[in-house]
């Protein structure tokens, strides 16, 4: 098996990038390589990478790539190098030492599936995200983790979509559906759109409960907008490129992915949650 090619887009937050890469160095299975897409960092990220992680490939952006174009730049680089298996990852995660080993194991059982990781809170070490199942008809999302007894929190569990942090993707998926949709979704929701598209194309999606990531939920831009409530941040929540409630992105996502009979209700429900939910959470 060729190495898993891990693509990590970064913009500043040098310390997070360092800790992420240090955790990858501690893997029990080192059959991977890393490409960092540095989109205009100004905090010394590039110098740190060259000095401390010379084995990492570095691609440069001018600050206008954002998540999706950054990931795609790294994926194109990996494809040109002949990689067969890929993983997208955010820099604000710390990998469990068996992440690569457990991903490779389940990839061999399901070689054409997209596989995500179980997420743990980096501070409490408790599981916080184990995948979701979206029911378009009922406009309802079930949290897989909440329905699983602890005795069954292992192996693969089927989901309808996956986040891009720690997402394993076989090459055949790109060959069939292309890369992430950077034109419609430059930052948020591109990962959910990509995995919904892959599922419609016939690929299975799973969360691998044997492969774990430590994450920092409070580090997301959307969490920070919600924690410091103001009308300025409310506007960013709804309209900014990095706003988690971005109405444009939600509309595009719904029109592209939702079955036509359920589009009106899904839009109405989603708009209501975005317009009101900011002040309720």
Q: Tags for this entry?
A:
single chain, 281 residues, alpha/beta, Spore Coat Polysaccharide Biosynthesis Protein SpsA, Chain A, 2 domains, five-stranded mixed β-sheet, 12 strands, Glycosyltransferase family 2 protein, EC 2.4.-.-, glycosyltransferase activity, Nucleotide-diphossugar_trans
Structure in words:
- By secondary structure, the chain is α/β, with parallel strands linked by helices.
- The protein has 2 domains: about 210 residues, Spore Coat Polysaccharide Biosynthesis Protein SpsA, Chain A (Alpha-Beta Complex); about 60 residues, no CATH class.
- Helix content is about 40%, strand content about 25%.
- The protein is built from 11 helices and 12 strands.
- The strands form 3 sheets. A 5-stranded mixed β-sheet has the order 3-2-1-4-11, sandwiched between helices.
- The termini are far apart.
- The model has no long low-confidence stretch (mean pLDDT about 95).
- Its EC number is 2.4.-.-.
- One of its GO terms (molecular function) is glycosyltransferase activity.
- InterPro entries: Glyco_trans_2-like, Nucleotide-diphossugar_trans.
- It is an enzyme of class 2 (transferase).
């Amino acid at each position: 098996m060729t190495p898993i090619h891990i693509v990590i887009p970064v913009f500043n937050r040098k310390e997070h990038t360092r800790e992420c890469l240090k955790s990858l160095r501690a893997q029990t299975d080192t059959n991977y390589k890393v490409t960092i897409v540095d989109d205009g960092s100004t905090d010394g990220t590039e110098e740190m990478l060259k000095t401390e992680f010379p084995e990492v490939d570095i691609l440069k952006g001018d600050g206008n790539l954002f998540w999706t174009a950054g990931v795609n730049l790294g994926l194109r680089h990996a494809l040109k190098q002949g990689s067969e298996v890929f993983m997208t990852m955010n820099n604000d995660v710390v990998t469990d030492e068996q992440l690569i080993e457990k991903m490779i194991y389940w990839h061999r059982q399901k070689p054409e599936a997209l596989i995500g990781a179980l997420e743990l809170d980096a501070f409490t070490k408790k599981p916080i995200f184990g995948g979701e199942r979206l029911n378009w008809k009922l406009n309802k999302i079930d949290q897989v983790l909440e329905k699983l007894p602890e005795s069954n929190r292992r192996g693969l569990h089927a989901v309808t979509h996956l986040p891009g942090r720690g997402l394993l993707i076989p090459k055949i998926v790109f060959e069939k559906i292309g890369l992430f949709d950077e034109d419609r979704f430059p930052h948020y929701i591109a990962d959910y759109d990509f995995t919904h598209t892959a599922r419609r194309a016939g690929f299975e999606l799973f969360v691998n409960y044997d492969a774990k990531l430590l994450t920092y939920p409070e580090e997301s831009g959307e969490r920070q907008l919600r924690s410091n409530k103001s009308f300025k941040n409310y506007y960013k929540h709804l309209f900014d490129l990095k706003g988690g409630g971005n109405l444009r992105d939600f509309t595009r996502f719904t029109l592209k992915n939702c079955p036509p009979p359920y589009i009106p209700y899904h839009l109405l429900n989603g708009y209501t949650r975005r317009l009101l939910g900011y002040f309720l959470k």
